[in-house]
């Protein structure tokens, strides 16, 4: 039961990190992603609650798999969780984002923003997953 709570909290931390990351980098991210905006500068059509719900489910999937990997690898300390989480974000997720953006002919800046978020969020989730 504790592992499930641990995964849910880690997913919440990853979700919250994304909220802060993309609020701070909203303007450069929207430009790099080619998001069309309305007269108020907000994304056209607004943002559906389904986007946020789906994002949280995806965070749960990532946190759950990280928990599994950490268990199999014997990662139990905060430092190891931080470094391992950052490694997952930087060396597994970010390159995949880069490949997708290369073929989508998206700006390199988008890869840096999204890959940076993946690295930060996974590092924070790694810490949470080693707390309890």
Automatic annotation (TrEMBL):
Recorded superkingdom: Bacteria
Chain ranges passing through the membrane: 7-25, 45-63, 75-98, 110-131
InterPro entries: DUF1761 (IPR013879)
Pfam families cross-referenced by the UniProt entry: DUF1761
Record key words, sorted: Membrane, Transmembrane, Transmembrane helix
Protein's recorded name: DUF1761 domain-containing protein
Species per Swiss-Prot/TrEMBL record: Maliponia aquimaris
